[in-house]
């Protein structure tokens, strides 16, 4: 069972964990032992509350397919159990991040001093450019 928050948990049957061979440079066991993990989680079939499902399906993340399947590949560690825990932790973080409410931007206006500094900078730049021109009457 994976605890997402105090009130939300995922049952073991909702998460499929499949051992696979890790990619990358070889070593003593890399070509023989399946220590990496593919975690699959179907958002639509899960027991998550509707709010969580809606937010997860709206997230633009390469780990979430159009069909609503989350696929996480964990191969950072040397043991299967550590990679399994890493994949579960990444799934938990993904769900928590999707459920976090979006902070609204409060529109602000620049202060009078900021507007004056901007105008002074524009005037200074204009003077520099004017000095680059050929003096009048030198034709």
From TrEMBL:
Residues 99-139 are annotated as: Disordered. SUPFAM superfamilies: Release factor (SSF75620). It comes from the Bacteria. InterPro entries: Pep_chain_release_fac_I (IPR000352), Pep_chain_release_fac_I_sf (IPR045853). Pfam families: RF-1. One of its GO terms (biological process) is rescue of stalled ribosome. Residues 114-133 have a biased composition (Basic residues). One of its GO terms (molecular function) is ribosome binding. Residues 21-37 form the Prokaryotic-type class I peptide chain release factors domain. Belongs to the prokaryotic/mitochondrial release factor family. This is Class I peptide chain release factor. It comes from Alkalilimnicola ehrlichii (strain ATCC BAA-1101 / DSM 17681 / MLHE-1).
């Amino acid at each position: 069972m994976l605890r997402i928050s105090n009130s939300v948990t995922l049952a073991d049957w909702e998460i499929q964990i499949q051992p696979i061979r890790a990619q990358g440079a070889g070593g003593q066991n890399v070509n023989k032992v399946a220590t990496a993990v593919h975690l699959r989680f179907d958002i639509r079939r899960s027991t998550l509350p509707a709010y969580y499902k809606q937010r997860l399906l709206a997230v633009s993340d390469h780990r979430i397919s159009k069909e609503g399947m989350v696929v996480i590949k964990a191969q950072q560690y040397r043991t299967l159990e550590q990679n399994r825990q890493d994949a579960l932790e990444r799934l938990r973080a993904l769900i928590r991040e999707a459920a976090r409410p979006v902070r609204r931007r409060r529109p602000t206006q620049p202060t009078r001093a900021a507007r004056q500094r901007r105008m002074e900078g524009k005037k200074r730049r204009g003077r520099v450019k004017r000095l680059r021109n050929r003096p009048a009457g030198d034709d």
